[in-house]
Amino acid sequence: MSKLSEKQNIKAIVSAIKAEEQSLRARFPILKMQNSIAMAIMLLSLFLLIGVGALYYFALIPAWLCIILAAFITSISHELEHDLIHKQYFSNRPFIHNFMMLTVWLMRPNTVNPWYRRQIHLHHHKVSGTEQDLEERLVGNGIKSPFLRAVVIMDGLLGLLINSKRFSKEIKGFKFLQVFNAGFPITSAYFAILYGVIAYHVVQFIQPFELPPWGTDVVAVAEFLMVVLIVPNMIRSTSLNFVTSSMHYYGGVTNLLEQTHVISSRWFLPFQLFCFDFGRTHTIHHFVPNQPFYIRQLISKKIQLVMAEHGVRFNDLHSLKHANRYLEKDE
What we know:
This protein is mostly helical. It is built from 14 helices and no strands.
């Protein structure tokens, strides 16, 4: 642990991150084409998702393989959305920028729209670790009960309904309908299909019945969407929510060093796979927000050593027992 002051440690980490990025960009001039790289990644991800869906439609791959591949692909679109929120791509060309925002939302339909998420995410950077951090609290951060935490992590809509009253009391400016309506119409359709298919099969199990031809067609489309988009995004969002709500602190936070810890534990590897290694790299983002996600991936190995030297904790899973509170070593 460094004996420098908190400000000095933070400055050292930020300087190291920026220096590694500059070195990387000097060695690979193609990184200057930031907009083009982002568009290529987005289009490739979109076409891969469509391609995987087509392979499943024509029975060339089984449902389980389609779900796993689609979950991984959509995790890339989340990273793109994160960068778009920070206006890393096409910031001076609003039509293309908003087209990308819409596309990544369509690929991840179980989230609020990215324009609203920009508001709560930028606010998250200002109030990270406090009860005012709506973004992290929506995904389970700060919840002590393992059961309630699991529900919120797996089902964002149910979590919102459960915590709405508490949020209204504790979070300034929180309005249930504002968050709920931020999912219309794409997220609304996602949950309508999800709950509709579940309800249909439950009723069929209890009391089987026949559907008219048009009803059979509707169920077939809904079940196809469950495999290629809905279940994959359940896996993706559950993995991401579990990792992010485990690595962000809630309470006891006074500076950047205390907002997150790095998760590199092998026990988290299955979840890291479906959130694009979020646990290993997201702490870098807290120190330098305006940086493309692929840069974080490329410099993370070296920067982890710097962060460890300057006071950032690693795998502080003990904090989960205390509802993510940042505890001093003598507490």
